[in-house]
Amino acid sequence: EKWGLDQLDERVVLDQDKPSVLGQQELNDRFGEALFVANMDGELFDDIAVGVPRETLNDGQPNEVSNTGVVQVFTSSPQIDGAGDFLLHQDLDGIPGQSQPSDFFGSSINGGFFDSSAGLDLVVGVPLEDIGSELQNAGIFHVMYDTDQGANPTKQEIWTQDDFGLGLGVG
Known about the structure:
Blueprint: E1 34-38, E2 47-52, E3 70-74, E4 86-88, E5 108-112, E6 121-126, E7 140-145, E8 155-160
């Protein structure tokens, strides 16, 4: 019996041009620049977190935020088709911060178990995040605890230091 990707008889391509996938494909979005694959929701199949660090939010609207970035999460499914995907970005309730132009949220993604809960914790780099008005492009990373809760994790922390957000490793 085949499970997950092994059960597929053909190659699967995920992009924002598919009708079942949130967002739309845009020039220089850099969809897939960062990837993290793990069982984030406790279901049978692994989930895929995809960094789209140059995603523009509210494209063409007065409140457009260019190159702010998102993480697109494709949830457990026997067929990877984009149904049930969701976006993580700094304008969502429960995620600290605010989407700003050229932050590049999602440039790096990783995960692990950083607290005592059973849920996987997701780490998202934002390399060009400003810290107040004094430190421009200083960079941060978000720790989103218990991502099995979906797009509104139960607990969040932001970590800062001049270089954080450029590359993450969990061991």
